[in-house]
Design goal:
Layout (H helix, E strand, L loop, with lengths): L1 H16 L11 H14 L4 H9 L16 H13 L1 H8 L1 H11 L1 H6 L2 H9 L7 H4 L4 H12 L11 H15 L3
Bound molecules: fe (ii) ion.
The site of fe (ii) ion has 4 residues, from loops.
């Protein structure tokens, strides 16, 4: 029970800390997180995927050292896994690899990227395919998450609320508890 409370409290603190954090996109990191969650929900994603979508950029929070931004996918995986399980951590941790894959395989995808995302793609090593990921059972959901991420930068788009995400987080923790 204590672990549940801690994970939810940590998540609430983390989400709040993303307010007014800007990464040269049209929305702040909180809105980006809440729009990612909404796009995932709209697509019928399960709770773990919705939660991973909401928290994939958690390393942008000022609660982390600024150097966390260099491997923000890995920071997300390490933060999420002990709190919400392997799948939530893995899905959030692949959002850069998924972008590199989509840029390499989907000609239309690149045109959808924001200018900031195009610039960061180069910094992340450019378009590429990691063959070790393709057979992974969670890879299709990692690609879904990436598309939620890219669609979550519209200042006029509907977003989830922090409470919505905390409800999802609570369900994920409860679902794990009996294991
Ligand atoms: Fe993102």
């Amino acid at each position: 029970m204590l672990a549940t409370v801690d994970a939810i409290t940590d998540t609430a603190r983390l989400l709040s800390s993303l307010r007014d954090v800007w990464d040269e996109e049209a929305v702040d990191e909180l809105d980006h997180a809440l729009q990612s969650a909404a796009r995932a929900t709209d697509d019928g994603a399960d709770d773990e995927l919705v939660l991973a979508a909401a928290l994939h950029d958690l390393a942008r929070s000022p609660l982390f050292d600024a150097s966390a931004g260099h491997r923000h996918d890995e920071v997300a995986r390490q933060w999420l896994t002990p709190r919400f399980g392997e799948r939530v951590g893995w899905l959030a941790g692949q959002h850069v690899a998924a972008k590199r894959y989509l840029a390499a395989t989907d000609p239309a995808y690149r045109a959808t990227l924001s200018p900031t995302s195009v610039a960061s793609l180069q910094a992340q090593g450019g378009a590429s395919i990691d063959p070790t990921l393709l057979e992974h059972p969670w890879w299709p959901d990692a690609l879904r998450l990436r598309r939620f991420d890219d669609a979550a930068k519209d200042p006029l788009a509907r977003a989830a609320t922090i409470e919505d995400v905390l409800d999802v987080a609570e369900r994920v923790v409860r679902h794990r508890a009996p294991r």
